[in-house]
Specification:
- With about 475 residues, the protein is an alpha/beta fold.
- The protein has 3 domains: about 1-135, Rossmann fold (3-Layer(aba) Sandwich); about 155-295, Succinyl-CoA synthetase domains (Rossmann fold), CATH 3.40.50; about 300-465, Succinyl-CoA synthetase domains (Rossmann fold).
- The protein has 16 helices and 18 strands.
- It has helices at about 5-10, 25-35, 80-90, 110-120, 170-175, 200-205, 225-235, 250-260, 285-295, 310-325, 335-345, 365-375, 395-410, 425-435, 440-455, 460-465, and strands spanning about 15, 40-45, 50-55, 55-60, 70-75, 95-100, 125-130, 135-140, 145, 160-165, 185-190, 215-220, 240-245, 280, 305-310, 355, 380-385, 410-415.
- Strands 3-4-2-1-5-6-7 form a 7-stranded mixed beta sheet, with helices on one face. Strands 9-8-11-10-12-13-14 form a 7-stranded mixed beta sheet, sandwiched between helices. Strands 16-15-17-18 form a 4-stranded parallel beta sheet, with helices on both faces.
- α7 (about 225-235) links the parallel β12 and β13.
- The longest helix has 16 residues, at about 395-410.
- It is elongated and about 85 Å long.
- The two termini are about 30 Å apart.
């Protein structure tokens, strides 16, 4: 069965109803933003106030357009939407996106408008996205619809992460991570869900061959059975679903009513929901960071993790975080301990977490040699590399070594920059340039690494059995 969403992502013709020559208003920005994209089809403008906008003819009604209209994008005052919808139905439009706000989120009158549209489309071959929708974007086809004042689709990076968000602000906050290196496939935000709903978008991404990781930002929840059936379907396809739930307190329930016009008596009890295919996170930082790990590291070998550092206090702190998050830190082999002792000329007992001491300040080759010993030893699957603070050129040197190891050894490396002040350094720029996942929040780094390992089928309990983790997926 073909998804309703296909009508919205592959139109050949689009009518922008309510287009404006005032490019500072949403109705004007929708047109400009659409023209910025890679949309190859024909665009028609509809607004009885104008004869033309930006040199393009402006029709008084969609019924005046002789060509077939695949997608109508409506951005007119809410009270005028029903009559515009009637014209779209008469025209035979198969997909309508309503960006206009002022519906059930605005109380009784708005709810009546929404109900009238729902009655109007019932039994008809038409799909409606919205109302009160901020838009959508297909990174696969490099086009989309948005009234965002900051919208540069030519710079968007295509990838395999799909996002569905309730509300445009959080959605935009997440897709801005595209600039860090995360590639997206689609972004959907269906607004008040009068027809196309959250589950429709989820099912589309599960079936989409371009999407491998799915991000959800949910503030209201309906069709529970279908939702969890879809989560299981995603799990069977090995597509992780990462959830950031909002509206989880009694205080936020009223805000949900005003935001989406949805009536909820109590928050959904996400804390009791457990499914191996659903990964729950607590912040935007976590949902973005975890998506980044899934996209960048397609393959992994196990849970055997080492903390690599030249600062004792920092390494101990990270060991605590790893223990609390069930990340296995096996001891170094005697062979590896002897190598470190011979190299650094200090007879201390080397352990995991590793403290190379400040001896490496004076000879940076010691730093690279030790890191290479770790990566070549095959004793560890994942390396947490700490950048406690800037020391001359040490961080830049270490960053270059990290990039070499990732290419040559296929290790998972988690760079963590701990400094709370000086982060404008070349080492970070080198890692950013290669779009390698990096972290400036150590709590986030360890939490998402733990969740990543758990989903992939690796856990501390497995690792404790024989010093090497094994996958159960």
């Amino acid at each position: 069965m073909m998804s309703k969403l296909n009508r919205f992502i592959s139109p050949k013709t689009i009518a922008v109803i309510g287009a404006s020559e005032n490019l500072q208003k949403s109705a004007g920005r929708v047109l400009v933003n659409l023209m910025k994209t890679n949309f190859k089809g024909e665009i028609f403008l509809v607004n009885p106030k104008y004869e033309n906008i930006l040199g393009m003819r402006c029709y008084h009604s969609i019924l005046q357009i002789e060509e077939q209209v695949d997608l109508a994008c409506i951005i007119v005052p809410a009270k005028n939407v029903p009559i515009v919808m009637e014209s779209c139905i008469e025209k035979g439009v198969k997909a309508v996106m309503i960006l206009s706000s002022g519906f059930s989120e605005n109380g009784i009158e708005g709810r009546k408008l929404e109900e009238s549209i729902h009655r109007m489309i019932k039994g008809k071959d038409i799909a409606v996205y919205g109302p009160n929708a901020p838009g959508l974007f297909s990174y696969c086809k490099q086009w989309g619809i948005s009234f965002s004042p900051r919208f540069e689709p030519k710079q968007f990076r295509r990838g395999n992460v799909g996002l569905i968000s309730h509300g445009g602000s959080l959605g935009r906050a997440i897709i801005d991570s595209n600039e860090k290196g995360i590639g997206f496939s689609y972004w959907f935000s269906p607004g008040n869900e009068i027809d196309v709903n959250f589950n429709d978008c989820l099912e589309f991404l599960i079936d989409d061959p371009h999407t491998q990781t799915i991000l959800l930002v949910i503030e209201s929840f309906f069709e529970e059975k279908r939702f969890f059936d879809l989560i299981h379907k995603a799990y069977e396809k090995n597509k992780p679903v990462i959830l950031l739930s909002i509206g989880t307190t009694n205080e936020s329930i009223s805000a949900i009513r005003f935001h989406l016009g949805k009536e909820m008596k109590t928050p959904f009890p996400w804390e009791v929901i457990q499914h191996p295919g659903l990964i729950k996170v607590d912040s935007i930082d976590e949902i973005v960071s975890l998506a980044w790990l899934f996209e960048y590291y397609q393959q992994m070998r196990g849970n055997r993790t080492v903390v690599f550092s030249w600062a004792g206090g920092a390494s101990i702190y990270l060991a605590d975080l790893c223990k609390r998050n069930h990340i296995h830190l096996p001891d170094l082999s005697n062979k590896l301990k002897r190598k470190f002792a011979e190299l650094i000329k200090i007879k201390d007992y080397y352990i995991n977490p590793l403290d190379l001491t400040t001896t490496v300040y004076d000879d940076l080759t010691l730093l690279s040699d030790c890191l290479n010993y770790i990566s070549e030893s095959e004793e560890f699957d994942n390396i947490i590399v700490l950048f406690p603070f800037q020391v001359d050129y040490q961080n830049e040197f270490l960053a270059k070594e990290i990039l070499k190891i990732i290419v040559e050894k296929e290790k998972i490396i988690i760079p963590i920059f701990l400094s709370q002040g000086y982060q404008n350094e070349l080492s970070l720029d080198l890692i950013k340039e290669k779009k390698l996942p990096y972290f400036v929040n150590e709590q986030t780094a360890i939490k998402v690494l733990s969740k990543f390992l758990e989903y992939k089928g690796f856990s501390d309990e497995w690792g404790k059995k024989d010093g090497k983790a094994h996958s159960n997926k």
